[in-house]
Amino acid sequence: xxxxxxxxxxxxGGCDITNPGFLAVDHIFDDGKQHRKDCKLTNPxxxxxxxxxxxxxxxxFRLLCHNCNQGREWYG
Length: 76
What we know:
- By secondary structure, the chain is of the alpha+beta class.
- It is built from 3 helices and 2 strands, in the order E-H-H-E-H.
- It has helices spanning 32-38, 44-53, 66-75; strands at 23-27, 61-65.
- The chain is globular.
């Protein structure tokens, strides 16, 4: 999954984090909560399988480090 999504944080600020322990899948359009609910994705393993089964879609998903992911959530 990490390789399919570039293996590094894809934030606009260019933090360039590559440590897998700090990376997470981001829902680009901020619809993650609803997406996980609609698709019954109750844990990260199910999300990874869902993404893999659909060919790693990049139009709605990307990798962000946890800092950038939370920064988007808190500050937009």
